Amino acid sequence: MSTTPNPPQHQPDAPRDLVGIGIGPFNLSLAALAHPLAELDTAFYEQRSAFDWHPGLLIEGARVQVPYLADLVTLADPTSPWSFLNYLKAQDRLFPFYFAERFHIRRAEYDAYCRWVADHLPGLHFDHQVDAVRWNPERDVFEVDFTQLDSDGEAEALGRTYTRNIVLAIGTEPYVPEPLKPLVDAPAVPVVHAADYLAHRDRIHAAEHVTVIGTGQSGAEIFLDLLRGRPAGREKLHWLGRTEAFAPMEYSKLGLEHFTPDYTRYFHALPEGVRDRLVTTQWQLHKGIDADTIAAIHEELYSRTLRGGWPDAVLTPGVRVRTAGRIATTKVELHLEHVQQGTRSRLTTDAVVLATGQRERPLDGMLAGLDPYLRRDSRERPRVDERFRLVCDPSVTGSIYVQNAERHSHGVGTPDLGLAAWRSATILNSLTGKETYPLPTRTAFTSFGLDQGQQPRVPQARQAQVLTPLVEGR
Fold first, then answer.
1. Distance (Å, rounded) from C-alpha 65 to C-alpha 385?
2. Which DSSP symbol is given to 429?
3. Which pLDDT belongs to residue 3?
4. Which of 106, 147, 421, 449 has its CA 20 to 30 A from that of 221?
């Protein structure tokens, strides 16, 4: 494919305009939208050797929960060469996709698309582990220390780069609730987080009895995959979780407007306490199960009753695991409590899949060198302004942006792929100090507050430090 010419060779001691830490979908989106902006000198670092997106959950047939238009760039720039449609064109698959009439693509296809962008986009540095970030007040720049890794993941060389601005997108990590942590210390029994499911799939399928813990989308997909691979009448599956029902994800048209820039701005303007209460009540917007997956599970279970009898599968919501441990070396025992009944029981099983979700990786380790400059809220979380910048001491003239680390300040849409391009464009507009990517002033029919008229535009705020002429001309 054709791209813009490569930028001039970067001088090692010259500060860049932007350094990205982490190359997942969100920073890949930012890099793709920054690519045509000749005035920006950018670089992105990732400790992994190549792009991969939840490889343990690329189950056959599993689909992304957002339409294909929620790619890396389209909702900010439909003409970008890094769009999903252009990827299909480059792969000579545009007509097959057209006839397939798919609005929601397979998860593996989204991963392949992102890999294609990562393979062709300049300025991405894999096998680079960022070790520390500091503010240099004498030069008014950030110092970013990194370790270059070899093919075995071992340290090969140390390096440092300088930048006026930083964007952190270090992603999420598998979450294991405290009562379940003893299970990971049972190596003789297959106990794996859903994030690693495919790597252990054969061993889990071979187990006589399998328990899936977690009633969200990943738990549903894994339960369905296990169910389809086991003989009728001898399924020996348990599926349980804390939520009160195997509930469908909110997918009504007005419900989806919670994933718009309008709602993000509304949420950010709410008092901190109100935001915290809202986050806990909105689980069905992002932790429910896709209705098609629920239907597929029911159909599979129903088809197993056609010859008489019921499948040997137990599906119980509203159950929490109180404690867990090993029995000898080949089984684990779960101590369960039904939340509504208050009853307790024990379950012995041969394998466990922990579909217990992901949590934002803490920023404190990465930002330890910047801690004196950071402003925090009442719960000691970094404060994030409306343009996704950490609020810092005024002496820090550069900006630290975050992606997928601001749910406490920006709401339920934070990890949603549908807002990736808009957030990236917002960051780039802030960096350049102009409307590089024109963004809509209104994106929802819902007026979430009692403000008069249309949803307000994002107020102008302190611009990031970028090009010297731009900063001096403010």
1. 28
2. H
3. 52
4. 421
